[in-house]
Amino acid sequence: MTITVAIPTYNGAQRLPLVLEKLKQQTGVENISWEVIIIDNNSNDDTAKIIQEYQENNFLPVSLKYYFEPQQGISFARQRAVKEAEGEFIAFIDDDNLPYPNWLIEAVNFAKKSPKIGAYNGQIYGKYESKPPENFDKIEPHLAIRKHGEKPLLFEPENLILPPGAGLVVRKKAWLESVPQNPKFTGIIGNIRVSGEDYEVLLHLHKAGWEIWYNPAQKIEHYIPTSRLEKKYLLSVAMGNGLATCPLRMINAKVWQIPIIFLRTLFGNLRRVILQYIKYGGQLKTDLIAEFEFTFYWGSLLSCFAWLSRELKN
Question: Do 97 and 238 fall into the same domain?
Fold first, then answer.
């Protein structure tokens, strides 16, 4: 089989029908072998019932399979998807990702460019339920909205310039050979949702010698409900993304590089925190974008101590 479309979902009963409708509308795929698998990540809504109805009605022109993954967390859901997928490539889309009609065929075509390609992603546009705040484009990438122009490019894992997991296509062989079964990033530390699961996988692929690419012809929309534009949610994203910074930089670090990375991350973000405070001062509480950036820098600073604490415990 050429490609598996894997959809991890948590309580996605209301969102999945639209995603499946978009997959039904894929064009140019008559001559490729593909399947769709749903990884239900411990949902407590009607996700299983909804998928069963679609299966019984033969809604898609290809196989639609359902798997229940009880261990909570996107890392575990994706590991389960890799285990169950029959395709040579696995195209991950979230239950709020809406692929363009030519998304799948463009993903398949790009895979043929080089046997060294381990993973690749495309353009991700924001589909907002309501109008985002002014200057929101400055922080859009933190919500997995990415556009890098109209030419393919090779990402820079050394600088943590990598694609998000939304719409990511991975060569199954590369994943199985490179990605550990027990991920370090599992999504939650205390009450904080910490990012990094997507980048952890890609950094392992890079370490093993696989290339990670941007394919502009591969396009999806990422639906952003109004609730994700609220201040509390956005600041939690900023902190979660920041807390992943130092641990991610350490994944492929050589022993002699560890103290250098630690100090550069620590003092680099301390400088950013100070400059952001000087620039905005009392406006931080009234300027959402400035407060988001400040929170991200602060989280990145704290990530050094979070990483150090975990290392000392181990």
Answer: no
Residue 55 clears pLDDT 80, i.e. is over it: yes
pLDDT at 281: 86
**Stated pTM of the model:** 0.94
Task: Kindly give, in sequence order, each residue whose CB lies less than 8 Å from that of residue 132, ignoring residues fewer than 6 positions away.
Answer: 126, 224, 229
Q: Quick check: helix, strand or coil at residue 223?
A: strand
Spatial separation of the C-alpha atoms in residues 47 and 185, rounded to whole Å: 26
Same structural domain for residues 58 and 120?
Answer: yes
Q: What is the pLDDT of residues 257-299, one digit of tens each?
A: 999 999 999 999 999 999 999 999 889 989 999 999 999 999 9
- Same-domain status, 96 and 161: yes
Q: Is 166 left (phi over 0), alpha (psi -120 to 50) or beta?
A: beta
How far lies 70's CA from each of 41, 85, 197, in Å? 6, 18, 18
DSSP state at residue 131:
P
Contact 42, 70 (CB under 8 A): yes
Chain CA centroid to CA 129, Å: 20
